[in-house]
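It is worth pausing here to work through a concrete case rather than discussing structure prediction in the abstract. The textbook approach is simple: state the sequence, then state the predicted structure, then interpret. We follow exactly that order.
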Amino acid sequence: MMDIPGKTCGSCSLCCQVLEIEELKKPAGLLCKDCVKGGGCGIYASRPDVCRDYECLWKGDRGMSQQLRPDRVGTILMEDPDTDEYRAVCDPQRPLAWRTPLVFNHLVAMAKAGRTVVAKAGLKSWRIHASGQWGPCV
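Step two, the predicted structure:
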């Protein structure tokens, strides 16, 4: 993936916190022990393939505003390759970050585009519909 000017991780390391990394025995929601304070990875050169292959949607989408950078909104926006869901995975410290107007409006737009949209915070998840209505996933 080519870098987009102005879209770098910088101090953002939300993916290193919210995502589960089985290869490192790192559960979802806890900051990776190899995460460097201020941003970066202490094992970058030897990081597992799952980390190496991860592509942040915010970094790769020219149309996604700077304001949607994951650490700014407390939410990683991602596509689930196994289910074709469009997901908002929230920072455990901000479990309802998906409800902020900026993120919620983005999620509704994705639902209007025909995507199955799910917000996740810990073990809870909610489906967001094109109408703007939402409810818990069962």
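Step three, interpretation. The chain has a mean pLDDT of 92. DSSP finds five helices and five strands in the chain.
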